[in-house]
Design a protein that fits this description.
Helix content is 21%, strand content 31%. The chain has 224 residues and is an alpha/beta fold. The chain has a seven-stranded mixed β-sheet with strand order 1-2-3-4-5-6-7, with helices on one face. The protein has a seven-stranded mixed β-sheet with strand order 8-9-10-14-13-16-17, with no helix packed on it. Helix 4 links the parallel strand 6 and strand 7. The protein starts with a strand and ends with a strand.
């Protein structure tokens, strides 16, 4: 856990790609894409059916280690609107324990925007977006937004070539007023942090890719 400041607020970047908010005892995660494997399996593309449980176990470990009381999921929490209904009993019980033991909020994303019954099946509350202590929480960054904003959607990763090896690490993308979280899900790809879609989302502003390690935060300028 590495502390840093964004828009005058202290946050903590966690190695798995979550964001801690110490003042609120909160955790923020984006793009869990739960039940992605079962979605593809229904279409004939067989994937190991362990992604959801692995993601939730890692999140549960973070909740325990940080003693978080509040969870914000910044959209695309399930891979599709019916994903919650496909949860295995054991996994559903784990998710229910998490949503019942914390103040849990699902922010709707483009994959789960129609999940109106999500709270009924899985607990928590569902909102389109939220403003919390002067910060906007939404799924996808709005290039025209000038207020401080936290979002997900793009699954940013930083790709580097080190001593002849290509390395990709999930990262946060930060400007003075925008912070894009990496995907937290166990079965998610990633978009290069300098991709034109991300550049457009941050309106071409100067940006950094932030990679948390156990004891420090690595910062890499993102080329325009």
């Amino acid at each position: 856990m590495v502390h840093f400041s964004f828009a005058g607020v202290e946050f903590a970047a966690l190695v798995p790609g979550a964001l801690g908010w110490p003042a609120r005892r909160a955790l923020l995660v984006a793009d869990l894409h739960l039940e992605k494997a079962s979605f593809y399996a229904a279409g004939g593309q067989m994937l190991p059916p362990y992604d959801t449980h692995a993601t939730l176990r890692e999140l549960a470990a973070l909740v325990e280690s940080t003693r978080a009381q509040e969870i914000w999921c910044l959209g695309d929490s399930f891979h599709d609107a019916k994903g919650c209904e496909r949860l295995a009993d054991e996994t559903c019980a784990l998710l229910r324990r998490l949503t019942s033991s914390t103040r849990w909020t699902w922010i709707a994303g483009n994959h789960d925007a129609a999940a109106t019954r999500l709270a009924d099946h899985c607990g928590g509350v569902v909102v389109e977006e939220a403003e919390v202590d002067g910060l906007l929480l939404r799924h996808e960054a709005d290039p025209a937004e000038t207020r401080p904003e936290l979002s997900g959607h793009f699954h940013p990763k930083l790709r580097l070539s080190l001593k002849g090896r290509n390395v990709a690490r999930r990262c946060f993308v930060a400007t003075a007023t925008k912070l894009i979280l990496p995907a937290f899900g166990a079965l998610t790809g990633g978009l290069d942090a300098g991709h034109p879609a991300i550049r457009a989302a941050i309106a071409g502003r100067p940006a950094e890719a932030l990679i948390p390690l156990a004891d420090r935060l690595l910062r890499f300028p993102i080329a325009a």
